[in-house]
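User: Could you walk me through two proteins back to back? I'd like the raw sequence and the structure tokens for each, with a short line separating them so I can tell where one ends and the next begins.

Assistant: Of course. Protein one, sequence then structure:
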Amino acid sequence: MTATRRFAMIFGIVFLLVGAAGFIPGITQPHSHPDVRVTAGLGAVLGLFAVNVLHNLAHLLFGVWGLVASKSDSASRSYGKAVAVAYGLLLVLGLIPAMNLHTLFGLVPLYGHDVWLHAGLAAVGAYFGFIREQEVPLERSRV
């Protein structure tokens, strides 16, 4: 398995775990914000990362997508590109409180600790999607 496919698999698993964690009381602490209109499931995972039901569903979607993409090198690279672009955009939106862009018009909380997390996700996605050269997988030797 190439490193790019491994990236897609690991991101897929982590996104699935984070998406599920957002629905678990205790892992997700109560949280409120006046600009978030979709309050279903509104909380903070580990008391740090603001989420709601739409945010959790987006994590689950990226998780499933990552696992499916990990089946091929080209799909994994495309997934990396999509993660870079999507989370780069979410990073920028999370920095702009004007017009409620930091909550995606009240739909999804993108502010606070989510900003630096989205920056990291975008950077890793950009590396595997745009920067890392395609590689030839090493065949396992048979004894």
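----
Protein two, same layout:
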Amino acid sequence: MLIKAFRNWTRQTSAILQAMKIGEAAREMRKETPCSVCGMTRLILPQIAEDFPEFSYSEFKARAETLLLSYFTAITQKQPERLSERSPALLEQVRQEITHQRADGTPHAYSEVRLHQTELADYRKQDGECRVVFQSAVGYMLRIGDGEAEQKQTRYNVELLYVQDAGAAQEHQLDAAFSMTCPNCGAPIRSLGSKVCEFCGTAVQEVNHYAWSFDKIYEFDK
């Protein structure tokens, strides 16, 4: 009886140990395997092109990737000015992250950063704003505080905002309230980036000048 019980215990223990090994192997594999991204480029790009015919996807994608790489450098070196794109919103975001990490005693240091893939993930027009979201699959070594560096695979979103160029608007000394109406018939210009009034066919030149600006970076862990 004791021998049978011992054999059963041995088999159960062996099965548990085997399951633990499989689980550990799966965790290690996840560290090596890039995350999948929300690849909506084929669906989103035509929508952006309709609103902004001059939008250069390849240019902004390259800039988004360069910005993301510089973001990890800025956090690691605790120097917000290392960002490749220095909008006020991005600079403030990085400053706050560095401050919080110092206060918590958990400074982050990134190394061996690699971008596996970048795609368009979202395109939103609401509340007077227009946003394009790039999503990148990222792999890196992360050391927090005095701990050991660990490999991680994750996703990051970089948001591109269509904003008013206040400097150009000031040069024209015109009010923003009149920036999106037809100069001939007064009809609203409902499509951002339109060159022709859809009601009377008059050529439209935007009175206020607008510009694209990267203003947000965050880890997408859903």
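The longest strand covers residues 108-126.

Let me know if you want the two compared in more detail.
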